Amino acid sequence: MSLLEVEGLTLDVPVDSGNGRILHGVDLTVEAGSAMGIVGESGSGKSMTVRTVAALLPPGATTSGTVSFEGEQVTGMSSDRLRRYRSSQVAMIFQDPRAAINPVRKVGNFLIENAVTNLGWSRSRAREKAIEVLREVGINDPERRLDAFPSELSGGLLQRVMIASTLLYEPQLLLADEPTTALDVTTQSAVMALIDRLRRERGMAMVFVTHDLELAAAVCDTILVMYAGRIVEKVPASELHERSRHPYTRALLDARPRLDGRESRLRAIPGQPLSGLEDVTGCAFAARCPFALDICRTDDPPVVVVDDGEVRCHRVHDQLWEVS
Amino acid sequence: MTEPLIVARNLRKEYDDLVAVDDVSFEVAPGGSLGIVGESGSGKTTVAKMLVGLERPTAGRIEIAGTDCSVPARGWRERSRRARSLQIVFQDPYSSLDPRQSVGDALREVLVVAGLGRDRTEARARELVDLVGMPERVLGSRPSALSGGQRQRVAIARALATEPRCVILDESVAALDVSIQAQILNLLADIRERTGVAYILVSHDLAVVRHVTDDVIVMRNGAIVERGETGTVLDDPQHPYTQLLRESVPRPGWVPSAGATR
After folding, report:
1. What is the pLDDT of residues B165-214, one digit of tens each?
2. How far is A209 from A40, CA to CA, in rounded Å?
3. Do B179 and A252 form a contact (C-beta atoms < 8 A)?
4. Tell me, what's the ipTM?
5. Contact A145, A134 (CB under 8 A)
């Protein structure tokens, strides 16, 4: 049994004209201790996928398919069970720690609140442990930081506090939604190194959502590429550059300017990213794909297993580029 | 040698006790492209704001096309003249356009202030949307009907309306999706080739800086720590801070490193 199994997940949310579907049958499996990256552009559904795993859905949203954690259905959990699930088994960290941490309460309160309210710890035990985890995430003088307000800490420090809060109870799965996007690159590097080390030391699994393919490849075992509410490719992180096969994955890799040289023109992808909400016949990427055939515009591509990955593309066997 | 288009000399900006910009000097040639690289708190945006006159330098001198622009413009004529020299495009295309104003009105407003007649204004508005690769019908659209990438095209069109000699791009592609970012970067290159406009790109993204700029200055805590030709600085950074920035960019085979956090 895998730690997390998502099968045939769909998500519908209320929109002006009734209901709109933003996830169209997402399947993914995360093994204990492993790290999975989900990458994609705006509207691809990457954030909503992890929010569904945490059962943090917008009001009025409905799902079908299954999300199971250690074999237990997350969608069927009672509110008491959900509280325990979110306070002891999974943890979520967000892009903007300032929006996720109550600004009028001290850092110490934020850290120990969950342990005292949901796990039944005494305040003194929670405080002791909070000092320990703050030290572990590299924050100097943790006793003093407990009495600080969030506004007194930099973004990088506050994201460390957020990470520390998840270590208090050692969850089995960390859900990280663009945790470093709002940070400077040097801070991003330090925070990712921290997450990576803590995760490995504790055997904690991670689902890491980001728009940055290089970052995902550096800290994950497997990469899922999402487009328009669908997973279009699953590829081992170590093979992302050499062996990914979906035209969208390749196009994303090619569109970024290079750090080690200058091209006269970037290989931009024409058009704009499609959100899951839009009606699609055939392959969602067909309208922007330079390799699209007639069948791509009419038939939904099936999932094809190739080597260690999975690709949803009609032309997966056509050797569109050299795959080593 | 040609006269530089923009000269900044010993710029300094203080806010109470804080020195945000400390002794910053650089030049931009006509049609040139300068990158200003740095992280939050480096002072890069404050430099941009002083150039466009949104902040007044505590000390130092700014010359644009031979005119002293260190003090705020006095009078309509002087402001209008500076607007024809230098424009700015901000990071967030969602907050930089008036939601109640159509794209056409946003452009016409600038053109009318610049003194174009009615006929010329309409023609120029159509030219501008074409220049940024959009169909004429967007002139009637409000920003809410446009995607982030389309809005940023409008912001660029508006900045180009008065045919400025230099446009400051303040993190102008940072909020865009990768595929859209590439489109806008290509567009910026095309516009520079066609119009000879100069760019000052303020950015934390070294790959984007490499793509857009010829020369670069690296700022930290308000001061310039390294400067030079962009390719040389990025391939062979001399200052430890530039080296750290370079090392922090995720790339194939990269491993995040603990380093120091502020």
Report:
1. 999 999 998 888 888 899 999 999 999 999 999 999 999 999 999 999 99
2. 9
3. yes
4. 0.86
5. yes
Contacts of A191 in chain B (CB under 8 A): 256, 261
Quickly count: other Cβ atoms within 10 Å of residue A62's Cβ.
13
Tell me the longest C-alpha to C-alpha distance in chain A. Answer: 67
> Looking at CA atoms only, how far is residue B181 from chain A in angstroms?
8
CB contact under 8 A, B179 and A268: yes
Distance CA B183, CA B4 (A): 30
In a domain, B1, yes or no: no
With CB atoms and an 8 Å threshold, state whether A257 touches B182: yes
In this structure, are residues A207 and A53 in contact, taking their beta carbons and an 8 Å threshold? yes
In a domain, residue B262? The reply is no
- Inside any domain, residue A313: yes
CATH number for position B32: 3.40.50.300
Q: Indicate whether B41 belongs to any domain.
A: yes
Look at residue A307 and tell me if it is in a domain: yes
Q: What is the number of structural domains in chain A?
A: 1
Closest CA to A256 of A220, A212, A207: A212
Report the candidate in B98, B166, B167, B161 with the shortest Cα–Cα distance to residue B125. B161
Which pair of tokens denotes residue A236? 């081992």
Confidence check: pLDDT of B261 > 80: no
With an 8 Å Cβ cutoff, are B40 and A272 in contact? no
Model pLDDT for residues A186-226, shown as the tens digit of each residue: 888 988 998 999 899 999 999 999 999 999 999 999 999 99
Give a yes or no: residue A100 inside a domain: no
Helix (H, G, I), strand (E, B) or coil at B252: coil
Nearest by CB to A186, from B182, B254, B259: name it: B259
The residue range of the domain holding B26 is 6-247
Q: How far is A121 from chain B (nearest CA, A)?
A: 31
List chain B residues with CB under 8 Å of A264: 189
Interior angle at CA A15, CA A11 and CA A16, nearest 5: 165
Out of A217, A259, A272, the one facing B147 most closely (by C-beta) is A272
Phi and psi at residue A205, in whole multiples of 5°? -80, 160
Q: How close A200 comes to chain B (CA, Å)?
A: 14
Domain membership of residue B254 (yes or no) is no
Tell me which residues of chain B, numbers 160 to 219, contact chain A at a CB-CB cutoff of 8 Å: 177-183, 185-186, 189, 204, 206-208, 210-211
Sequence-distant (6+) residues with CB within 8 A of A183 are: A155, A156, A159, A191
Domain count, chain B: 1
- Hey, are the CB atoms on A156 and B261 less than 8 Å from each other? yes
Are residues A241 and B252, on separate chains, in Cβ contact within 8 Å? yes
Q: Is A136 exposed, middle or buried (0-12, 13-18, 19+ CB in 10 A)?
A: middle
> Is A7 part of a structural domain of the chain?
no
